[in-house]
Amino acid sequence: GQQLNQSPQSMFIQEGEDVSMNCTSSSIFNTWLWYKQDPGEGPVLLIALYKAGELTSNGRLTAQFGITRKDSFLNISASIPSDVGIYFCAGQLLNRDDKIIFGKGTRLHILP
Amino acid sequence: DVKVTQSSRYLVKRTGEKVFLECVQDMDHENMFWYRQDPGLGLRLIYFSYDVKMKEKGDIPEGYSVSREKKERFSLILESASTNQTSMYLCASSSLSGMVTGELFFGEGSRLTVL
Predict the structure, then answer these.
(1) Residue B100: which H helix or E strand, with range?
(2) What distance in Å separates residue B40's CA from the closest CA in chain A?
(3) Confidence of residue B16 (pLDDT cuts 50, 70, 90)
(4) Arithmetic mean of pLDDT, A90-107
(5) What is the pLDDT of residues A12-33, one digit of tens each?
(6) A17 CA to centre of own chain
(7) Is B108 close to A40, i.e. CB distance below 8 A?
(8) First-residue to last-residue Cα distance in chain A
(9) Looking only at Cα atoms, what is the longest distance across chain B?
């Protein structure tokens, strides 16, 4: 089936550093989404992207929908302790609006 | 505040037992989903439902069934639990417009251990 390749799998960074993670696929997507899962909770939507090339910010978070429609990245600037968690990319395939596919997640650890 | 509630946060069951995981949403959403989450594998779709009494198989339906008798409630059933079904189970819902926006609302998860 279709797959999203999310990297890195995990990251250890110092508080205050910037973070970058990305997702790629061999399939074309209509929509790219980024979710965050706090420890012990369900995932929550952070950013949604609907057009190729779209760049969207939400506070310290910035995400982009790749021009080829096959990739997306998420950047977090000036990380803080509450950024800890698992970040998932997700996408809706072209012509398959009923199906959202998730990446395997990037686990973010922040060192004091 | 919108809410998806999963009935049990933690369950421990024995191999062969029948397991029910219940999910209720208070947002009048049409669509409901069951995912399982495993380390290194991300979220994998088990079943989903667009409407009452309707269900569709996801990517990994084997060993599971679902029931949607009321719009707000979507149950996941393990007819005969096996150890490889030890996992975190996440329920989610979305509105009709959510199928376009891709926004899912998740519950807190049910961690199932099968001994």
Answers:
(1) helix B98-101
(2) 6
(3) very high
(4) 82
(5) 999 999 999 999 999 888 899 9
(6) 17
(7) yes
(8) 40
(9) 41
Six token digits for residue A65: 């929908």
Is B4–A100 a contact, with Cβ atoms under 8 angstroms apart? no
- What is the pLDDT averaged over residues B42-55? 92
Which of A102, A106, A107 would best serve as a mutation to test chain B binding (most B beta carbons within 10 A)?
A102
What integer best gives the mean pLDDT of chain B?
93
The residue with tokens 């991300």 is B42
Please give the residue that has the higher pLDDT: either B2 or B88. Answer: B88
pLDDT for residue A98: 63
Q: Is A88 on the interface with B (CB under 8 A)?
A: yes
Rg (CA), chain A: 13
Q: Which residue has the tokens 């060993």?
A: B63
Q: For an interface test with B, which of A34, A56, A100 has the most B Cβ atoms less than 10 Å from its Cβ?
A: A100
A90 and B CB contact within 8 Å: yes
